[in-house]
Amino acid sequence: MEECDRCASAKKPPTPALFGGCRLMREFTVLHDISTALSQGFELREAILPMFRKVTEASGLRRGILTVLSRESGDLVVEELEDDSVPAKSLHLGQLESGYFGAVAASGEPAVIPQLSATVTSDWLPAERDLLRAAIDAGESLIMVPIRHAQEILGTLSFTRPPAGQAHLEADERFLMVVAGQVGLAVRFRQIAKERFDALKEENVRLMEQIQKSFIPEGLIGRSSAMRMVYFHVDQVASSKTTVLIRGETGAGKERVATTIWEASSRKRRPYVRVNCAALPESIIESELFGHEKGAFTGALSLRKGRFELAQGGTIFLDEIGEISAATQAKLLRVLQEGTYERVGGTETLHVDVRVIAATNRNLEKMIEDGSFRLDLYYRINVFPIYVPPLRERRSDILELADFFLEKYARQNGKAVLRISTPAIDMLMAYHWPGNVRELENIIERAVLLSTDGVIHSYHLPPTLQTGEASNTASASTLAEAVDALERELIVEALKNHRGIVAQAARHLGLTERVLGLRLKKYAIDSRRFRTAEA
Ligand SMILES: Nc1ncnc2c1ncn2[C@@H]1O[C@H](COP(=O)(O)OP(=O)(O)OP(=O)(O)O)[C@@H](O)[C@H]1O
């Protein structure tokens, strides 16, 4: 390798050719590789082991050892070492100043021992001797440098050098001091990251416990952890006047959540005004929201109060807020910022004290990018976002919701519908619910109306739910097979309802006992199975 300019101009031979050719140039390259290695991975190990490899490959040094002072116990601990014959993790080198490694860390000065075998004394800890046993036996040298970050000592970095290379220990020390500077940064960065990560983890556990214990608001069904998170947020925000933005797919329950917030708030006895921004034509939305003066436009025969005025002192729920026009966005922004507005066609400035809850299923961030939603309005409404998850992400809520709607619509329609059959439950569970809770509610309402025997069967559910597997008709590729599957289900249901008594089940199905017996044989149904089953 060629000399670098610095070696040549110094008019002295290049520093010893340990790296082959000019050591300075090689060191520079290696240091670059080392800093790249140290920036990898979240765990210290993922950075240190590649660093050891780079150093040993480039320099002929061996047996990298990293010790780090524990920030909790103050002990010096072997964090990583290259020689995997030594169980590093069990090596605690004790408090600073005990032993040889501790002395280097405490003094903050590097140390070089040219001949380990001749130097190890009783001052060394047994753990240190174990750590370097192979190097002592091989007559190697030890170069140890402190690791610092700013002025704080973090630990030590050491390598050994086989006997043949002992002439270069000074250059090794200088090189390792530079490496130690980079290692110090890497260690400190990961210590801080780990402490923050642990603190967040603890906070997370605490919050999850709180969420598990948190209240379940009346009228909101579902105990899935996703919904508990919603309840937790409702609980946190309800009593304040903070603007809330509820997000989620259509039918997921955003309006239900908004109503719950109002019900749980101190404004419960004050007005609650709902506005569906998507349902109002652009031409009238402003006058709907802010009212208009008499004669403001053709047809404005008298003064009309807007929804904000009607909600004075209470709460306004702006559903589908993503649908409002640019002009209305500007006016809304002013209301949110200053609490003032004028009626359409009016000059009098009105002051409002209204808590705003908004909801949308639109991607507002994308709308901001497109220029169809104002960023400043977004900041004003996105003060406390609550995300209502889609039903397919909280399947454990499906049955509870289905039972809730079953009871509601049975009561409303004066019907004694008591339960949902197992195949129907399977279908409800297997479906992907693009219309979310609203779709489930509509389906149960319809099924309650269709049911004649107090049970919701799979055939009471609409064809969109007939996913084959769920309705036990997965292999029903022909009409005959589908009919068989349905017949089988009806027979099983009848047997369940009549505790396995074939005569009663047959009567219920309008069959003779003999015909039902033949069917049981055909479908390999054992009626005795239902003797203890729930009626
Ligand atoms: N967790 C729930 N518990 C009980 N009923 C619910 C729940 N979630 C939703 N519902 C009911 O489902 C139906 C649809 O809910 P809601 O109108 O709140 O949905 P949404 O997200 O506001 O829909 P959209 O985006 O179409 O306005 C309503 O009848 C509502 O009462």
Automatic annotation (TrEMBL):
One matching Pfam family: GAF
Nucleotide-binding is among the record's keywords: yes
Coiled-coil annotated residue ranges, if any: none
Location of the Sigma-54 factor interaction domain: 220-449
Keywords: ATP-binding, DNA-binding, Nucleotide-binding, Transcription, Transcription regulation
Superkingdom of the source species: Bacteria
CDD domains the record matches: AAA
Protein name: Sigma 54-interacting transcriptional regulator
Organism expressing this protein natively: Actomonas aquatica
